[in-house]
Amino acid sequence: MNASAAIGVTGLGVMGRNLARNFARNGYTVAVHNRSAGRTHALVEEFGHEGAFVPAESPAEFVAALERPRRLMIMVQAGAATDAVIGEFAPLLDAGDMIIDAGNAHYADTRRREAALRERGLHFVGTGVSGGEEGALHGPSIMVGGSAESYAVLGPMFEKVSAQVDGEPCAAYIGSDGAGHFVKMVHNGIEYADMQLIAEAYDLLRQVAGYTPGEIADVFRRWNEGRLGSYLVEITAEVLAHVDAETGAPFVDVVVDAAGQKGTGRWTVQTALDLASPVTAIAQATFARAASGQSELRAAYAGLPGGTRPKLSRTEAERFASQVEHALYASKVIAYDQGWKMIQDAAAEYGWKIDLGTVARIWRGGCIIRASFLDRIRAAYAADRDLVSLLGEMEFAMEITDAQVPWRETVSSAARRGVPVPAFSAALAHYDTLRAGRLPAALLQGQRDYFGAHTYGRTDRPGAFHTHWAAPGRPETTA
Ligand code: NAP
User: Fold this and answer.
1) Is Metal-binding included in the keywords of this UniProt record (predicted)?
2) Residue 317: pLDDT above 80?
3) Residue 37 CB partners (closer than 8 Å, separation 6+)
4) pLDDT digit string (tens) for 197-208?
5) CB of 200 within 8 A of CB of 343?
6) pLDDT tens track for 417-458
7) For the chain, which has fewer Cβ within 10 Å, the N-terminal or C-terminal residue?
């Protein structure tokens, strides 16, 4: 067989098939392979006219079809399946070849695989791909890890098949080993937070303002024209306006209120705990999904006393809706900021040099959190590469200042009326934590020293101190 393929894709499920077609439609010759050959033949039969495909039945045939240095993309389930496929193909490759894992791998697995394959002279390119089935075909957001050397070869290809916004590709090199998969994981965590915040805004408009789903769809359509304009707000309006054909009821009222999850939000929260990175809005959004699924517990306690819900007049409801817009926006800034800070914390831990503005740039298209808002984040990091928080950027700071009263009014209205808003509350508490100056953590340190002699620092001099709590009055000692 002629080694004519610029790239090979193995694993032709939902994502692999569409990514292979995307490469072919962009003029690349693509070798295609699947564990069960049926999918390979189906792809070529159905979409062969879209470009140049080289179907391969065996791993050896597949590898022989690839130009050197070989570029072999794996698109299978994360975990054991990915290890099995690497184990099958790595022995067939030569030094300098590249294995691209475009599945949703955990970044720690990517780091392990990269180190092992580097020993064998192979480039392992952990690549986060966002945008689902449609994105894979028409242009995803692509977050690339691995060596800079491999990106020099693969970058132009990824940039060509990715989503394009204002003439710029939504694909970029993120950093070494697991950086691409890490950033993809945080993208999904932010997505959880954004979705939960939107859902809480909906709940408040329904429970407090008394709007119907159709009216709330109109509110979201209006918001989509402004600073909240985004794919998620746009589809929220569509979902809320949808009427169930069978019953004539609002679609949202016939859906079981237990949210599913595939696990990347959970990974974000688990990893954040290890990094001591307080992504509280993302965590609350993840726990809110878990809580929604505890149907027995919820059924047992439904109807317990809570707040009161006086009916708002039309004018009051409109005023309330405008407060919720501020609360949603301010909470969204905090949730995104937490995600970016988590990336900074991981970069410090793993020695990644991540350009934070680039992350915002490649999320403007192709992925679920795509939004005009990301242009602003990009500009903030372009103006100051070392920006620690978006709250340090003047425009964001001004917006958060303007949101103070309506944001707090929204969260306190929710508490008074007994409407759960865990993500709004977490975002506001995070903001208050940052601005507090002094936190009750000093008392925690006292408690820790009392029961465990864990020592504490003093505000008036350096060092670690311990107080003899059993004998009050005895002087503290330096640990
Ligand atoms: P899928 O439709 O279920 O396809 C899975 C593919 O993996 C099939 O081609 C299957 O081959 C192959 N496979 C599974 N185990 C294998 C093994 N042990 N050895 C060899 N091949 C094996 O999955 P998908 O939705 O395309 O997802 C693929 C990856 O993309 C996953 O990591 C997923 O998390 C990620 N991802 C998915 C989305 C999405 O929206 N679906 C978005 C972003 C990322 P057979 O045909 O022989 O079973």
Assistant:
1) no
2) yes
3) 57
4) 999 999 999 999
5) no
6) 999 999 999 999 999 999 999 999 999 999 999 999 999 999
7) C
CATH number for 449 = 1.20.5.320
- The reply to whether 83 and 159 lie within a common domain is yes
105 within 8 A of 80, measured Cβ to Cβ: no
Examine the domain organization and report whether 48 and 129 are in the same domain. yes
Report the atom number in ligand 1 closest to the C-alpha of 80.
Answer: 18
Mean pLDDT of 28-46: 97
Catalytic residue list contains 191:
yes
Residue 370 and residue 310 share a domain: yes
Query: Which residue of 9, 12, 15, 43 sits with most ligand 1 atoms within 8 Å of its CB, as the best mutation to test the pocket?
Result: 15
Residues 164, 239 share a domain: no
Q: Which two tokens stand for residue 93?
A: 């490759």
Instruction: Mark whether 332 is an active-site residue.
Output: no
Q: If pLDDT is split at 50, 70 and 90, which confidence band does 248 have?
A: very high
Distance between Cα 76 and ligand 1 center (Å): 3
* Paired tokens of 171: 């694909």
Task: Look at residue 173 and tell me whether its pLDDT is greater than 80.
Answer: yes
Question: Using CA atoms in the order 39, 45, 50, 51, what is the torsion angle rounded to 10 degrees?
Answer: 80
Candidates 443, 66, 442, 433; CA nearest to 425 is 433
Ligand 1 midpoint to CA 284 (Å): 29
325 and 423 in a single domain? The answer is yes
